[in-house]
Amino acid sequence: MIDLTTGWVQHPGVSGGWHLEYVDPVCGFDISIVTGPKGSGLMGTIAPGQPTTYEAWLPGLSNPTGYLTLDELRGIIMYLREKHRDEAMYMD
Q1: pLDDT at 65 over 90
Q2: Where does residue 27 rank: exposed (0-12), middle (13-18), buried (19+ CB within 10 A)?
Q3: Which of 23, 40, 77, 85 has its CA 20 to 30 A from that of 60?
Q4: Angle 41-47-53 from CA coordinates, rounded to 5°
Q5: pLDDT tier at 4 (50, 70, 90 boundaries)?
Q6: What is the secondary structure of 65-90 as a DSSP string?
């Protein structure tokens, strides 16, 4: 199970923003995930009546990816796990 619901803390630089530092227990990579109120400058928003979206710094990317749902992030993590497993198989 990929738990992206616990461990959230208030974002230190964004009023009303939230931050999660996710460390994958399977592969060890970390992903910084943030969200905040509309107009906060983040590529993830908490807006009444709208689904919450998230900005994430994914492994290997130099820029964040934005406006993702938690389900989309879980799918990306599953893909990264498979990629890590496949690369480990061919490193021998």
Answers
A1: yes
A2: middle
A3: 40
A4: 65
A5: very high
A6: EEEE-HHHHHHHHHHHHHHHHHHHHT
The tokens describing 65, both together, are: 């990816």
Rounded distance between C-alpha atoms, residue 49 and residue 79, angstroms = 30
Residue type, 28: G
Q: Which two tokens mark 12?
A: 């230190």
The residue to which tokens 């592969």 are assigned: 27
**Strand pairing partners for 20?**
33
User: In sequence order, what E strands does 29-69 have?
Assistant: 30-37, 45-46, 54-57, 65-68
Place of tokens 């993702």: 68
